[in-house]
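Ticket #4471: structure export looks truncated?
Reporter: QA, pipeline team
Priority: medium

Steps to reproduce: submit the single chain below to the structure queue and open the exported record.
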Amino acid sequence: MSVSFVPLIEYTRGPLTEVVHAGAIAVADTRGKLIASAGNADALTFTRSTLKPFQALPFLQGGGPGHFGFTSPQVALLCASHNGEDMHVKQVDDMLQKIGTTHRTLQCGCHVPLLFSYGGQSVPADLQYDERHNNCSGKHTGFVAHCVQHGLPLENHLDMAHPLQAAIRTQVARVAQCDESDLVAGTDGCSAPNYALSLAKLAFSFARLASGAQDSEFGEHFELLSSAMAAHPEMVSGTGRNDLDFVRAGRGDWITKIGADGVQTIASKSRGQAIAIKVISGNMPALYAAAVVTLEQLGWLDDVQREILKPWGEKLLLNARGNPVGEIRAAFKLTMA
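Actual output as written to the record:
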């Protein structure tokens, strides 16, 4: 671990560094060429929710969105880690109605909507929520839709051996251009299989995704997914979320996807490049700051974008009285390949 990860973000107090968040960063292009890195670009990390666009591939390859009449915001929702806001639940409801099933088939479990946990809001005592409010409900609705369309069993559709999950594993390996046997498997928080990739492979995969129709293998499907993610970032994340601000800062050129426990991807369509970051502590504010610093060091930011992303980057640390007591600041410099 000490070889793979380097200090990325440090928190200071007075003259001392008090907290250090280590991690690694990889920047790759659509050919898989490493452009820049910090730490070990080959460090393995579970992809967590950054995997969602690729988990949707079997559904898209089977013509699922057209078959059920899913709209562009609903395609974006397939890739979402959403807030569970009314706008998200409404879309999930509509998708389930089009499929002809209910939220009880989703098997993703329930949690307090991210609107409250990420937004720092108090949870109302009378709040009622179910699987539709799960941040992964869009992905799971796509799973159920695929099974319904192709007559596959629903009761075990999250099992690793289920035809849907086997197809997803194959497509993930194809996108990352690795052997299926090299994929390290685990179970995500929503009970779906998840896979670990090197940061370089994850960045490469997102560079391909952002290239859309230019990708020779998945062009049609990557165009549909990346266009929906760029056009509807509020569906992919939600109010107050970093993915929303980052996509808006990208002005149609960027797609971004957060993953739990310190994973972030950012891809630029025009550059044909993507960034993959892992903060090993899982600290999300440190991850956000590392992402902004990475964009700055790569030269992707103009003054307007810097202003939009300022709340997510390096900043002063304030105490309860609003007085500055330290800083959140970068502790890394990208190595250009």
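Status: closed, not a bug. The export was complete when the record was re-opened. Leaving a note from the reviewer for reference: Residues 32 and 301 are 23 Å apart (CA to CA).
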